[in-house]
């Protein structure tokens, strides 16, 4: 191995280890320095070499010198290319993330449901959570001592509560309050002025119970509005149920009501199928089965194909392949009579769905209590 | 209602296997809870809805089967009872004193030998979930399951005077029922008494004294009809629900009373339990006319949106036992006595829909015949508030509307609360007067699970005894205002983070609010404020913001050093003041430059910032467009009891460039006013 080869090998190692401009400067001085540089030192050995070897040796040294210069320049350019500009920061450090909150999953689902119906022209109502017996039961064809009252175990207030309730729903539409012809008299609300809606006086009947369903709101709406009716009544409802995996004493419902001169059970079916397919899946099986509610006739329970087992039968659907999601039916004539509508002139459908129940199914939640614990580790699993 | 299929087959031809039967009846409105195979037989457990008491017996379900499969009913054997009398049968005398609560009372007498039932009968009862007791009791239960009609057997020897009086209880009367419980009777409860005292709680439960025992030799078999509301009230009041009361309160079949009696008598003889005496009692207030409905077939189409052939309508109705006369389009329909749920045409429509099949209804959509109303302003505001709160880092909580009274008292120490009379637990006893209570529990829950920084809000109803239901927005916040970061330690929140959130949300809603120091029993004094919302002629108190008292946090295991701030805003109170939803009217952008002047003044440190701001506003010319408090300093160089306030004043005119002289003059006037009003000294 010649001295130039030795020096080249040494240089190759050193330059590979160079990380900074300062490293390069030190290498440059060590190899190319006019005094004391390794190349200069090698040049000095030239004088003592045999004359015939000198030209070749001189060429070899010069070649090495050019190689070193080129390598140093290349390395300097490479380092310059990767060097950080003045004031540079490490962009991979975590930034200061502003906290962003999310909507509660029940609100998210409720909003979705409301949006589906709002798009179809439904008015979204809000109404009182404490109610009187009339709005919660009697007007819904559940007179005192009716066995159907057992279906909804009620929480009662300790004493009648005098509070004033503004009319439910917007002011009645001008086109709806214009006097209809006799042939098409669809009945008129009996509890309030014909103009109805927001112009009706507040209701001061004392509350005696916590509403067991949002149907109470629909009664209030019909009392102050003439048909046609197309409303959604979402909100909290209360039952005397113990808190466990699948029950709570408070939950949220969305109920719908459509009343008009030509509303049929077929319309109910189409509306419900459309709603459930939009909510769950476009191809989900939807089955209607006869059922009983005091305020609808005919009544139906609605089932969807179990999403878990695709109808094969699993624990979630109790091996039936179907899961009950909703109750509905054609508004009972007694309900129309209670609010002053003429059941010979109008028909209507109503439906009710529990938001928690849907949420359990859709989100795969196994314990309904999670919705009320407000544990951020749970809430943050839902999109913001 | 547990149905042994082989037993059902005695009453109707069932052309399908049990599993198919279960599925088909399920789809006709009889929810199947379970199907249990028993050899080649099966027990199907149906859940019968409250409107169908007729199907609380096999006969009712048999009619459904006959209609579903177009097969025939098979009538069970009945005994010949001889002539009926309104009052007496042999030694027995029956007096119905309360014909409203008991419009029909039938009774027969049999001489019996009490003993065990034959195996086949006991097995059937067991399959249906009823315990076999003795042949006589078993026969009454058998008939109950078969016909749906409850019966009762008395030991004739135990009836004083051989008499039965159907009357309401007398004051202070008691009765020991078959379950051995002595019950105090109210005067509106119907009893079956002998000459001296009650022997049964009519339609609910028999009495222990006249119970059929091994020694009984002669029985009185009762088959009656009781008023549903009366039975229900009695059953509820005594907390005593029985197979009999369950059926009577839903409505038994008035005509079935005599049939069930004859059926029971036939069985007693069939199983060799005794011999029935000829002659029976049928005490009946009046003959009830069946319900007749003029049924316009157009109703089917009107309600269902589906044309059903008149022949199909007739087939279904007749199959279910309805009488059908006349021709389409209007049928005269007679409702059978057992269908207590049917009284109007729409009830018939349901029968047709049920048996024609809900799956055949065409899915259609209701026509929109009126323009949809505008969205509810309150819901729009709610949506905006939710959006703002989440944008500020708060997550939405949903907490229960009821809380414990103890918790409520932490927030509202005195005065009325809206309470629940039958809460399931003390923690759900009163309706919340504030949303802060539930949020605080939610904060504590998260704190316990290792979360230091918690921001939660809720939007919902609070219940103010004197103010009614009230839509409220509240939040709770603990932990860092600026979270922990590699560049700096976290900064814990203070009052101004809290008030800033309130001001930010108010500003986004277009509400003009101010804060005023005010105490609340649950907030730290000196760190709590009322939120005042400006309306046309002043301001209304519409909420609070402040630091929660540490003892309240401590009681919920939140470390005492962690400040929790809470705020609540009465949305109902500010709805009309919110301008967010108004159509914005824009102003032209300023075309001329502004001039800025900084002033620093020395004032008493008790002087409120709001007062300084007020003085500046009133002394300034209209060209003052902004006054910004940019520094507040106490300490070195500032005398004790004083504070240095620095304001940046921005002047701007819409129509010209202001001169320095104008700005200086305005600043001078402001400083003079501050000196005059507050003794301020310019530094």
Compact overview of the structure:
The complex is a heterodimer of chains A (384) and B (683). By secondary structure, chain A is an alpha+beta fold.
Oligomer: heterodimer
Average pLDDT number of chain B: 94
Order of strands, widest sheet of chain B: 21-24-25-31-30-29-28
| Count of individual beta strands of chain B | 35
Distance between the termini of chain A: 71 Å
Distance between the termini of chain B: 92 Å
Pairing-aware structural class of the strands and helices of chain B?
Answer: alpha+beta
Beta-strand level of the residues of chain B, as a percent range?
Answer: 25-35%
Unreliable residue runs of chain B: none
In terms of DSSP E residues, the strand content of chain A is 15-25%
Shape of chain A: rod-shaped
Any overview of this molecule?
The complex is a heterodimer of chains A (384) and B (683). By secondary structure, chain A is an alpha+beta fold. Chain A contains 13 helices and ten strands. In chain A, the strands form two sheets. Chain A has a seven-stranded mixed β-sheet, with helices on both faces. A three-stranded antiparallel β-sheet of chain A has the order 2-4-3. In chain A, strand 7 (286-293) and strand 8 (296-305) form a beta hairpin. In chain A, helix 2 (21-32) packs antiparallel against helix 4 and helix 5 (105-118) packs across helix 11 (355-363). The longest helix of chain A has 29 residues, at 54-82. Chain A is rod-shaped. The two termini of chain A are 71 Å apart. Residues 173-184 and 190-197 of chain A have low confidence and may be disordered. Chain B has 683 residues and is of the alpha+beta class. Chain B is 29% helix and 28% strand. Chain B contains 19 helices and 35 strands. In chain B, helix 3 packs antiparallel against helix 10 and helix 4 packs across helix 5 (135-147). Chain B is elongated, with a radius of gyration of 40 Å. The model of chain B has no long low-confidence stretch (mean pLDDT 94). The interface between A and B is large, with 97 and 93 residues.
């Amino acid at each position: 191995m010649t001295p130039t080869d030795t020096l080249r090998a040494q240089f190759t190692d050193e330059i590979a280890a160079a990380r900074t401009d300062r490293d390069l400067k030190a290498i440059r001085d060590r190899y190319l320095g006019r005094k004391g540089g390794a190349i200069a030192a090698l040049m000095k050995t030239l004088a003592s070499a045999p004359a015939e070897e000198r030209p070749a040796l001189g060429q070899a040294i010069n070649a090495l010198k050019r190689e070193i210069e080129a390598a140093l320049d290349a390395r300097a350019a490479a380092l310059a290319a990767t060097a950080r500009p003045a004031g540079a920061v490490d962009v991979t450090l975590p930034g200061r993330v502003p906290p962003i909150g999310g909507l509660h999953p029940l609100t998210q689902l409720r909003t979705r449901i409301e949006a589906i119906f709002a798009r179809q022209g439904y008015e979204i109502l809000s109404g009182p959570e404490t109610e009187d017996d009339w709005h919660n039961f009697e007007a819904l064809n559940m007179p005192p001592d009716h066995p159907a009252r057992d279906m909804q175990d009620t929480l009662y207030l300790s004493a009648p509560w005098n509070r004033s309730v503004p009319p439910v729903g917007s002011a009645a539409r001008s086109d709806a309050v214009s006097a209809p012809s006799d042939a098409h008299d669809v009945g008129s609300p009996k509890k309030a002025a014909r103009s109805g809606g927001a112009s009706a006086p507040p209701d001061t009947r004392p509350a005696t119970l916590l509403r067991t369903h949002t149907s109470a709101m629909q009664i209030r709406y019909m009392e102050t509005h003439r048909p046609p009716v197309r409303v959604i009544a979402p909100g909290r409802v209360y039952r005397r149920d113990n808190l466990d995996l699948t029950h709570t004493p408070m939950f949220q419902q969305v109920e719908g009501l459509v009343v008009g001169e030509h509303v049929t059970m077929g319309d109910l079916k189409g509306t419900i199928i459309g709603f459930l397919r939009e909510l769950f899946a476009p191809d989900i099986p939807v089955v209607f089965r006869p059922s009983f509610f005091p305020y609808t006739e005919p009544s139906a329970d609605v089932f969807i194909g179990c999403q878990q087992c695709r109808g094969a039968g699993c624990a979630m659907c109790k091996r039936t392949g179907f899961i009950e999601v909703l109750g509905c039916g054609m508004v009972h004539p007694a309900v129309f009579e209670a609010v002053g509508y003429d059941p010979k002139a109008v028909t209507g459908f109503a439906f009710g769905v529990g938001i928690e129940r849907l949420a359990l199914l859709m989100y795969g939640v196994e314990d309904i209590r999670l919705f009320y614990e407000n544990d951020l580790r749970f809430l943050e699993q839902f999109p913001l | 209602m547990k149905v042994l299929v082989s037993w059902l087959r005695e009453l109707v031809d069932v052309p399908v296997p049990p599993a198919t039967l279960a599925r088909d009846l399920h789809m006709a409105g009889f929810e199947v809870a379970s199907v249990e195979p028993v050899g080649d037989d099966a027990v199907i457990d149906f859940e019968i809805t409250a409107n169908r008491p007729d199907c609380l017996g096999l006969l009712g379900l048999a009619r459904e089967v006959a209609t579903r499969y177009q097969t025939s009913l098979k009538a069970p054997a009945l005994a010949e009872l001889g002539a009926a009398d309104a009052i007496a049968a042999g030694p027995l005398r029956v007096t119905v004193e309360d014909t409203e609560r008991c419009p029909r009372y039938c009774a027969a007498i049999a001489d019996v030998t009490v003993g065990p039932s034959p195996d086949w009968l006991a097995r059937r009862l067991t399959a249906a979930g009823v315990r076999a007791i003795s042949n006589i009791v078993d026969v009454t239960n058998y008939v109950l399951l078969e016909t749906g009609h409850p019966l009762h057997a008395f030991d004739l020897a135990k009836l004083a005077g051989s008499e039965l009086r159907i009357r309401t209880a007398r004051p202070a009367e008691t009765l020991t029922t078959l379950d051995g419980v002595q019950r105090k009777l109210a005067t509106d409860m119907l009893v079956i008494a002998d000459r001296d005292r009650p022997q049964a709680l009519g339609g609910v439960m028999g009495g222990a004294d006249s119970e059929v025992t091994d020694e009984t030799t002669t029985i009185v078999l009762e088959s009656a009809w009781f008023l549903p509301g009366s039975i229900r009230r009695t059953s509820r009041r005594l907390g005593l629900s029985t197979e009999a009361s369950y059926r009577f309160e839903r409505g038994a079949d008035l005509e079935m009373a005599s049939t069930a009696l004859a059926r029971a008598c036939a069985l007693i003889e069939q199983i060799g339990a005794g011999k029935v005496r000829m002659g029976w009692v049928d005490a009946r207030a009046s003959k009830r006319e069946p319900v007749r409905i003029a049924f316009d077939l157009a109703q089917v189409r009107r309600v269902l949106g589906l044309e059903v052939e008149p022949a199909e309508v007739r087939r279904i109705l007749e199959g279910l036992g309805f009488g059908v006369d006349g021709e389409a389009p209007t049928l005269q329909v007679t409702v059978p006595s057992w269908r207590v749920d049917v009284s109007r045409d729409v009830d018939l429509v349901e029968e047709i829909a049920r048996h024609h099949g809900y799956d055949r209804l065409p899915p259609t959509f209701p026509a929109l015949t009126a323009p949809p109303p505008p969205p509810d302003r309150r819901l729009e505001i709610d949506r905006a508030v939710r959006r703002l709160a989440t944008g500020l880092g708060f997550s939405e909580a949903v907490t229960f509307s009821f809380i414990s009274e103890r918790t409520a008292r932490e927030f509202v120490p005195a005065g009325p609360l809206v309470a629940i009379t039958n809460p399931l637990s003390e923690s759900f006893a009163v309706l919340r007067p504030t949303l802060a209570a539930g949020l605080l529990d939610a904060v504590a829950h998260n704190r316990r699970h290792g979360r230091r920084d918690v921001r939660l809000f809720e939007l919902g109803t609070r219940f103010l005894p004197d103010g009614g239901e009230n839509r409220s927005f509240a939040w709770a916040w603990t932990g860092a205002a600026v979270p922990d970061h590699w560049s700096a330690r976290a900064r814990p929140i203070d009052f101004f983070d809290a008030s800033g959130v309130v001001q930010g949300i108010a500003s986004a809603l277009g509400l003009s609010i101010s804060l005023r120091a005010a105490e609340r029993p649950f907030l730290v004094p000196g760190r709590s404020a009322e939120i005042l919302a400006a309306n046309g002629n002043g301001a209304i108190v519409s909420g609070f913001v402040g630091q929660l008292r540490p003892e309240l946090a401590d009681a919920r295991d939140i470390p005492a050093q962690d400040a929790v701030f809470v705020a609540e805003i009465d949305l109902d109170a500010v709805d009309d003041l919110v301008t967010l939803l108004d159509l914005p009217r824009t102003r032209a952008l300023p075309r001329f430059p502004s001039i800025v002047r900084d002033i620093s003044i020395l004032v008493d440190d008790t002087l409120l910032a709001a007062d300084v701001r007020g003085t500046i506003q009133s002394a300034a010319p209209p060209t003052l467009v902004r006054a910004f408090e940019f520094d507040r300093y106490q300490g070195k160089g500032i005398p004790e009891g004083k504070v240095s306030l620095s304001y940046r004043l921005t002047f701007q005119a819409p129509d010209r460039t202001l001169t320095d002289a104008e700005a200086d003059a305005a600043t001078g006037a402001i400083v003079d006013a501050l000196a005059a009003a507050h003794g301020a000294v310019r530094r």
